[in-house]
Design brief:
CATH topology of the largest domain: Rieske Iron-sulfur Protein
Strand content: 15-25%
Strand order of the largest sheet: 1-9-8
Number of strands: 9
CATH class of the largest domain: Mainly Beta
Number of domains: 2
Shape: elongated
CATH superfamily of the largest domain: Rieske [2Fe-2S] iron-sulphur domain
Distance between the termini: 82 Å
Number of helices: 4
Structural class: alpha+beta
Amino acid sequence: MANSMPATEAGHHGGDVTKRDFLKLVAGAGAAVGVGAIAWPLIDSMNPSADVLALSSTTVDLAPIQAGQAITVVWRGKPVFVRRRTPDEIKTAQSVAQNTLADPALDSARVKPGKEEWLVVVGICTHLGCVPIGNKPTEARGDFGGWFCPCHGSQYDVSGRVRHGPAPGNLAVPPYAFDGDTKIKIG
């Protein structure tokens, strides 16, 4: 006779569950719930707030903008120029030889296909971050009919491409999409 004790007295034998096993399970589950209850608010606090999410995109009504006019809207704290170009401005922008540009870019790469009359660019000069003028009819637009940065003399054409001055690059094109024929969503 090797061992005459019943299985329940000798410890955990034969698949029996003891009170100790049950307490370990309950304690482990309680600890997991506690960690989750502490971690969730911490992780959730890292999400952007509602006011930040609202600023991440801007909807612009295009209906009041006439051909040849431009408006300035704010997106992510930056000025964005939305310009409705005339057929002559479009033709001029499309006919520019790429070898004459400091930062070569086709006009077709800066506008949406089929919506060439609309140009959307971030209105920050690529030289030192100034805001160029030229959205109002009374403001100077430079020799190329687009925008003029009075701080250091950079000039941009009607496609937002740098044509003269110290600016090293074109005005940036933000992410945008048309929402029907009369609205765009920037961002």
